[in-house]
Specification:
This protein is 50% helix and 20% strand. The protein is α+β, with helices and mostly antiparallel strands. The chain has 2 domains: 181 residues, Jelly Rolls, CATH 2.60.120; 111 residues, Homeodomain-like (Arc Repressor Mutant, subunit A, Orthogonal Bundle). A 6-stranded antiparallel beta sheet has the order 2-3-10-5-8-11. Strand 6 and strand 7 form a beta hairpin. The longest helix has 30 residues.
Amino acid sequence: MENGTIMTLDIEDFKHADPMIDYADDDFMVASCMENLPYKNEIVRLNFFLIVVCVEGKIQLDINGKTHLLKAEEVLFCLPTMIMSNAMFSPGHKVRMVGFSTKFLQRTVKKEKDTGNTISYIYKNPIHTTAGKEENPHFRHYGELIMDKIKEPPHRYQKEILQFIFSALFHEMLAEIHRYADKNENAEPEMNRTGYLFKRFMIEVAKDGGMHRSVSHYADILCYSSKYISGAVKQASGRTPLEWINEYAIEQIKHQLKHSEKSIKEIAEDFNFPNQSFFGKYVKAHLGMSPARYRDMQEN
């Protein structure tokens, strides 16, 4: 895996993909076949939240370098930044897939008060068994309702209706995982501590609004060493604290570049960069282009 080229897969990549993609817009994707994923033969880093329900057959794939087997009546949850590779499918397999963009997650998850344990649980337990569970019919009903709405003749409020249904489905999924995460938390006191610290860390990152981009800043606030914070966040979420910090900061910066009438110099000052040059290098490192270029692209 280390020698392969990792391709980043976004929700947008599904818009003009294979006909097996049932629906795709800026925030959501519905598909009925994993074999027709864009970059299907590559090592893929997800830039969205993916749910895969195995209806029939089996699927073997590597997630973050670990091999998993997804069987009938099991669900695979993949968080953004998870890496998928080496997918193999049994003959006659059937799946249903739903994807949620990171923009949707940022609008939704930031409203939740207790997501640390849920995120940790998904990283450690990406496959969830639904066989015999009472909640299973609810997800089937959501799936049927979504497909019915997708197949309707296009109308003025179709997209808005689908957004509300997708949002309801996502929260149903969060509620189910949260119950299992709570059980996992009670069974593992150490994960309870790391999960709690991760939650506090994410609250401080959100409050900061992208102003500070060092682990030491948050370590001082939380009264722990940078090394301890780094270990706890990595254990709880599978990602380093710097990855979380930079992701949140760059989303705030993108928002300002897209929607603010301030100059790039003013935006750099607002985000506490020492000068415009440092700001430009930071943006280019994370977006692959200068702030001015990114702003121009949004206007075209």
